[in-house]
Amino acid sequence: MLDTVIRNATLPDGRRGMDIAIRAGRIAEVAPGIDAEAGEVIDAGGMLVTPPFVDSHFHMDATLSLGMPRLNRSGTLLEGIALWGELKPQLTVEAMVERALRYCDLAVTRGLLSIRSHVDVSDPTLRTAEAMIEVRETVAPYIDLQLVAFPQDGYLRAPGAVELMDRALDMGLDVVGGIPHFERTMGEGAESVAALCRIAAERGLRVDLHCDESDDPMSRHVETLARETLRHGLQGRVAGSHLTSMHSMDNYYVSKLLPLMAEAEIAAIANPLINITLQGRHDTYPKRRGLTRVPEMMAAGLTVAFGHDCVMDPWYPLGSGDMLEVASMGLHVAQMTSRTGMREVFDTVTVNAANAIGLEGYGLAPGCHADLVILQASDPVEAIRLRATRLVVMRRGRVVARSAPAVADLFVEGRPGSVDPASYAPKAAEVAGD
Ligand SMILES: [Zn+2]
Question: Are residue 165 and residue 210 in the same domain, yes or no?
Fold first, then answer.
């Protein structure tokens, strides 16, 4: 006897007419026409069923704080950091927890069930860490929240940051963070990368650094990160976030850098909404896009994920918890408009993101957690195009959110009475291939 069976699903890999059997919070079987009794039957109606969305880069401690204490007028990363510095002394654990929980409510309805959040640990009170640990425990039944100890004001630059990193990790934060491009010099940035990788190796933790988040073509921190990853045997456990300087780097240098990153098995986490917004602010025209070299890194065999980074905070006034919006922006900025390219972009907010942050039991294979989303879209490309409605969101075999299909009534003579945006899927494009 099964707990649930989902009938007539289309899977991200293109298989259609599949049933998904669920027992005890796990996926028991994925096959056409599963013939077994089930407590509940959910008809996917041929729509796409995907593992949940994963946000591999976020700032939960700052989310929904837009306008406190004022807005970012220049729109730059540096004013955002300064503004956050003004806000920090006013933050309370209670208010941070409340904002974070509200965001997590929204995330669940968007089918976003795993989030890696950087947590600013540069204030000696470590209120941010205390608040986010509380949130991690509270949301554990419905969201996997990973916490990165992030020295926002610089690991070597800010007084006390070295000791605060240790204290934050002792409190139970999960991942070692850093911000080498914000240290005083390129040399001190490199020194911080070496020190942070050493800490991770000693503590058996993963690393995720804000790395080369500038338009400086000479920024070299991801190279150092790859070297230190190899030195400490951290292959497959390290992520470089942003990597925007790679947009502006010399092509010859990048041709040497990418194989080094592949050797170190570094995951690259780009944040398209934020990168296109914050980078290029010192340019006149032409104005650089700032997004790192996504298709080139994929071709080099690197795991590339996209993060949301910010939702209504000192760095970004918009955002909606919708990883399909993130995917859509990344797809456009990286010009990944081939059929293959668009399907690869869907992976950046699902399976690649899960791999980048080391999630276990993720996917639709038998034995995986029964975490999934039924989308009002016939395939991954349509999901991105439509930013499709999340019809059903399931966590450990239990439905945790539902949305009504987006179907509009139409009152135009001689035309149909309703319009379903998901009915426009271009059959010919699939037949025509890539
Ligand atoms: Zn960030």
Answer: yes
